[in-house]
Amino acid sequence: MERAALIEFKDVTKVKDFDRTKIILEKVNFEIYEGDIISVIGLSGAGKKLILQLIVGLKEPDEGQILYQGKPINHMKKKEWNDYIGNISYVFQKNVLFDSMTVYENVAMPLKYATKLSKQKIDEKVMARIEQTELAEVVDKYPSEISIGMQKRLVLARALITDPSIVLFDEPTIGQDPIRKNAILGMLAEYNKRFGFTAILISHEIPDVIFISDRIIALYDRKIVFEGHADEYQVSNNPLRKELLSSIESLEKRLTGLYSKRKFKIHYQTDLSLSKRHPDAMYSVAIFALDEIDLVSENMDQDATEETIRALGSFINKHFSAVGGFSARQTINEYATVLPYSDLEEAERIMEDFKKDFMERSFPNIQRLLEGEEAGDDCFEFNILAGLAQGKPQIEIESVMEFARFNQKPIARFQCKRELGTS
Predict the structure, then answer these.
(1) DSSP string for 222-282
(2) All domains of the chain in start order, with CATH
(3) Looking at the whole model, is its pTM more than 0.85?
């Protein structure tokens, strides 16, 4: 059965406020359906944020109409408008939490200032949302005292406290590492199903948001170049996707050989989210790092540096994927590997096998590379560090990663034109 659109853009054109000759959106048409997760994607400056501003009335189209349940929002009477805007929550790019307020007070704020509910009713609703978003243990703490993952849940709890039917997300994962992006997007998808709101998010981090989206709206050169299901976008032939693929191909020589972020996401979402059904399930995290990599970069040729990083990443991926692990590069010199359903004892055995395998098979190749003509004449020295930590589904994975970093020890040492030392 064909669904009726909840929000519809019909031939919407918008020009720049201070330069009427510059068109930002031109004859834009798309539909948003109730209960879906819709991602508006595009390059920086494509007009993604403008879409959200038009939905909430901060901007008005120069041409065309925006309809809500079939009615133009610019023709609504005051009560109709208040009902419409009262059904929308906006989650800003930055958390915008009030540091001087506790978790409870942050969640309660919209009810205190925008409703006439009694103190008892407010308390009931706030505590219900806090429990639903798993924040009960930190209800009296301040935002600076809780983890980033909890802060994201707090932002969403506050957005949901007014029971909105639509929640707008402005770049919800910007500036986050791959592990935190997975956690944020997984939480968004979980709460979308639990509470039934329509989620509209904008992002330029295109591979990440596609995985959780029901529909994709792609902006390119002022127009919609794709509107449809996420699976269809993956095989579509549109200029935005072509440009992104071209960009990825140009970076191919710099890739580490690890799982792509999309594969990493699939493993993380399926393995770790499924394990939440079993509170006693365990997983382990390994964090690898090249210590003093900045020194290496200064003293040796850049190509040799990149080859070293790539070779280590490829070996990590090959070794741990063989035992069910999945990995992703975190920074220029750090890698994270997750071992689902492995306790610390088993992870330590796997790590010992990795160290032995690395020393026998990978090190000689890397050492030859570093001592070759392309490495230059300067000497250098750096360590490979590794740390392990054990986690459970109810523990924030970033906390487990921090414990793994804390537990890091040297497992190998490279020295210019000398043999490798091990620990």
Answers:
(1) TEEEEEEEHHHHHT---HHHHHHHHHHHHTGGG--SSPPHHHHHHHIIIIIHHHTTSTT--
(2) 7-252 (3.40.50.300), 256-415 (3.30.70.270)
(3) no
